[in-house]
């Protein structure tokens, strides 16, 4: 009986000792509620947490993809607060907005008009009643030209000539497809007046090469690789929009601006005349839930390493700190705004 009592007493003593050790570890090691740790750091978890950044771009034959790869592999991957970053090919603007909302991406490249529609839930059926609530601006990039391309030997000479033809209008739900629909409408045409094929730039280029397509809408900073790829096998003709069509577009949609592309841009591929068209602005947006410090560092790193973007694509040279907020159609992320304010760039 005495041995049982002694064993019980020893067990109680051991339990108290273990409890004391646990308490000492909580007080002297790891992090407590105030954010202090035994390594002397004073940052709280939110400011020290590293994030993995997945960037949604566009088709591999467009402009978004090569710029996105340069951003993730050469810039963001070295930004403080980012543990890993990668770019993925996507269906571009509309899809990017929807999948940012779903949490699939942490940042996306997108047209400024599509970003506005997504945040405000208007104009496009995809966003009516389905607003994207976690989108914040990081920077404006470069103008994206609306280009309607056919082959030089085609009889197509204007938008009106697309009636009855087979035309690639971009991936279904993409920014290009939204632009194609609006441009055709400005010329008095609808999809009912032609055979609309939903496909990306690379497939459209192939279709024009093999004769299964008559024309294609391609939206991107000129020169666009899909048109250059086509021009390597067949001379190209990029159509000009009429003054009336341009006027209809710029008056009805605030994000279109008139743009002239020099004939020299595609002169090596058969283009003989300058191209009168319209453009929207490509912008980079992020998940509004990303930490402020992380987005600040990403923004800072991008402008301090802009040479990587210039090497990736001709449009990289259009990306400037001075123009970082031009055409920004949604609210900036606080981290980006903080960097711009420090650099004397207006964020109003």
Automatic annotation (TrEMBL):
**InterPro entries per the record?**
TRAP_TAXI
Q: Name one Pfam family in it.
A: NMT1_3
Signal sequence extent: 1-19
Q: Where is this region: Disordered?
A: 26-57
Q: Where is the composition biased (Gly residues)?
A: 27-43
Q: Mind listing the UniProt keywords for this protein, alphabetically?
A: Signal
Q: Which PANTHER family match?
A: SLL1037 PROTEIN
Q: What is this protein called?
A: TRAP transporter solute receptor, TAXI family
Q: Which organism is it from?
A: Lentibacillus persicus
